[in-house]
From TrEMBL:
Positions that bind NAD(+): 148, 202-203, 222, 257-261, 283, 309, 333-336, 381
EC code: 1.17.1.9
Gene Ontology cellular component annotations, sorted alphabetically: cytoplasm
PANTHER family for this protein: FORMATE DEHYDROGENASE 1
Protein name: Formate dehydrogenase
Amino acid sequence: MAKVLCVLYDDPVKGMPKQYARDGVPEITRYHDGQTAPTPKAIDFTPGELLGSVSGELGLRKYLESLGHTLVVTSDKDGPNSTFERELADAEVVISQPFWPAYLTAERIAKAPKLKLALTAGIGSDHVDLQAAIERGVTVAEVTYCNSISVAEHVVMMILGLVRNYLPSHEWVKKGGWNIADCVERAYDLEAMHVGTVAAGRIGAAVLRRLKPFDVKLHYTDRYRLPLDVEKELGATWHPDVESMVKACDVVTINCPLHPETENLFNEKLIAKMKRGAYIVNTARGKIVDRDAIVRALESGQLAGYAGDVWFPQPAPRDHPWRTMPHNGMTPHISGTTLSAQARYAAGTREILECWFEKRPIRDEYLIVDGGKLAGVGAHSYSAGNATSGSEEAARFKTA
Ligand code: NDP
């Protein structure tokens, strides 16, 4: 029988909700490209409930215990004395969400001799040292597409929020003011601006589709070009590299995975090539941009605004400069964990576990690493290597 170690974020400060704002969530059975939403044999939760925090347990306990497996759920994930590190010693399966990632570094993988499956309840497995997983033969899987649209909606919200100066204007209302000039001195229309996405995968393409009705000029860069009819339908211009795209854009949104090729892509040099007063929205991963170069660009006016929900490490230390830098619209990592998204990735996690324990193949579109190499979707979108270095700094959140 297996031990399944699941790392989830903390419950709400006031405890689990007794009632929800809405009665349920709409059911989605297929995504835009025809892929089916998760298809587990059964689920033991009500869609629309809080599943991603410790007491929600991703709705997995009944299922796993009925098979005789052990489920350990914790939010205590950072530092050598954490529950996660203690429990890792005899775990076969580790489940983690990118919002509150259990960093599976090479050192931790070495301390987990029984570990066979690292399952991301969400999308983005950069919190796992993929190189170490490849070398140790650990399978890495994620629930591809489960929250791509959730993120695309967040991106559109953040682009509008920055360009129209929404958050500072809301602050004036809360303070009892009516300071129209203060609100609008940084407010613009998005219409006719040039908006570009780094990557036109599931999220990037969904952002392009959602922005088209705003009458903006769309751009994208990706390793593989979209089919020409899709490019035409969107009216999107492809750029062979990120540099040529950012030079043309007023707004840039980052939607590629973090892997060695994209780490630190937005450094001082690239940001200097952007138009003065451009905006960046990054809901992909914090490490794709140079943390301090962003702060300096906002202070100098090279960037007019920066928003996103991804940081490094997570949780971000309490003194992380993005909490207080000017013209930021940051949220904690939430875009892919709406109650709607949780229902899908909890079901996807269950589907992958059912396959694992019944020795059935996991869908190709969920595989990142398998059989000692990048596999499935991972072979297409990732590069081998490690992007977890520096993750030990996450322990500072507890102590600071
Ligand atoms: P997809 O795999 O559908 O898309 C990723 C795209 O990035 C692919 O088109 C891929 O190209 C492209 N890409 C990879 N490397 C590069 C590169 N060097 N330059 C340009 N493009 C590149 O994934 P999603 O769209 O669903 O998700 C993207 C990322 O968003 C995730 O990896 C994750 O990091 C993040 N995410 C964030 C969430 C949040 O809550 N904030 C939730 C979900 C995801 P190709 O495949 O053509 O090689």
